[in-house]
Amino acid sequence: MSPTAARRTAAAFRKDRARRYREAAENDQVLVGTKVAEGHANYAMAYNMLTGIRVAVSRCNAKMPKPIQSSDFKTSVKLAFDVSGNEPTPSTKYDFKFKDYAPEVFRSLRILFHVDPADYLVSLTAQYIVSELGSPGKSGSFLYFSRDYRFIIKTIHKAEHKLLRNILKDYYYHVEANPNTLISQFYGLHRVKLPYGRRVYFIVMNNLFPPNRDIHVTYDLKGSTAGRFLNTAKTKTQKGEPIKGSQVRKDLNWIHDHRRINLGPSKRQLFLSQLECDISLLKRLGIMDYSLLIGIHDLTRGNSENIRNSTLKVFQPELSESDLITTDTKERKLQSAYLRHKLKHTSPKALVESSAILPLTVPADKKKFLFYADDGGFIATDENDMPLNELYFLGVIDCLTKYGFRKRMETLIRGMGKNRHEISAVPAVEYGNRFMAFIRRISGTLPADKST
Predict the structure, then answer these.
(1) Cβ atoms < 10 Å from Cβ of 236
(2) What domain range includes position 154?
(3) pTM (predicted TM-score)
(4) CATH number of domain containing 203
(5) Pick the residue with more confidence: 341 or 254?
(6) Would the keyword Transferase turn up in this protein's UniProt record (predicted)?
């Protein structure tokens, strides 16, 4: 073949390849398999979140650490990316913009929480886990789990984002003084914005539940009773079967089930002392509507029911290294279009059907914390401080709601037909006092107090 003919053939091949990439990116019909779910746009959004985190955190880690100053709590860094994580040239349209809030502060927090920088980036890959059980906390938020089930990526409302920025300095110094705090461990605060789209705020935080143990029952406790009951008989799978495991039950379920946080004298004192300290901070900051999330693993049942396999799914676009790495501008545009197509037509797979494998052990750094020292949890003990057959995974979650105008209106409206002590929306100090009184009553190995 002559050089001229070879050039023509190569040009025709490139043109045809560009056409195929373009058609794949623009085609909204499913080529193979079934049509994806309505919420699929959120899966692609989470992919963008993880891409932004990896780039922003890598850049922050490349700088030398320095002592935290007051100005660090208010700084932010803006970035723009195409879908593959490359910064677009001025003439190229970006896929999303990313904003990293107080990066130096959150790097310091990750150090305080013993999160290894390399492990953090390795965990937050393009592959992530979603749960059919949804968020255990506030409605309207989406939860995604890192590939090793260690970190949670959670969308939050703008008001929650604003509150976290306002209280970040208090939170930072509280963590510094209380390494065993039960309040959620925040590792990052970020924002994603699509072209002509809304801004999505999200946080990265610790996952209280372990990768290596089934959670047999989960409770979300606030210390109130109005609307605090889950009818487990009505919550079933699409096939009409009862859902295994961790449906999130509430205060009245706890009372109805005659549950207690079984802790002997030593552990009960440690637990309540730390919780009292944490709640004092939240009361001082005017925060309410938080809850104590408790996941219980029954050691006698172990992992025999494979609950995680039935409730967790994996989002894992099938991409090769060549889909993500290129230096040629035209080739980058084609590969970005192809990657957009892949994201649009990928749906989460059941854990057992994917290549994802959850870790068999808890990360060693997690065991450095008092309440996660017993294989990632806090083992129940009897009155003689001897271990029992329950392992608790617990912490204070949803700590980003202030008692403002909306909550005052909720207090007024809900208080008309119910006893004020039964409703959740009450001022922060009253909320905290009631919360602590309830947790004290249900903690320990004494016979259950029948009062509510």
Answers:
(1) 11
(2) 40-314+350-442
(3) 0.80
(4) 3.30.800.10
(5) 254
(6) yes
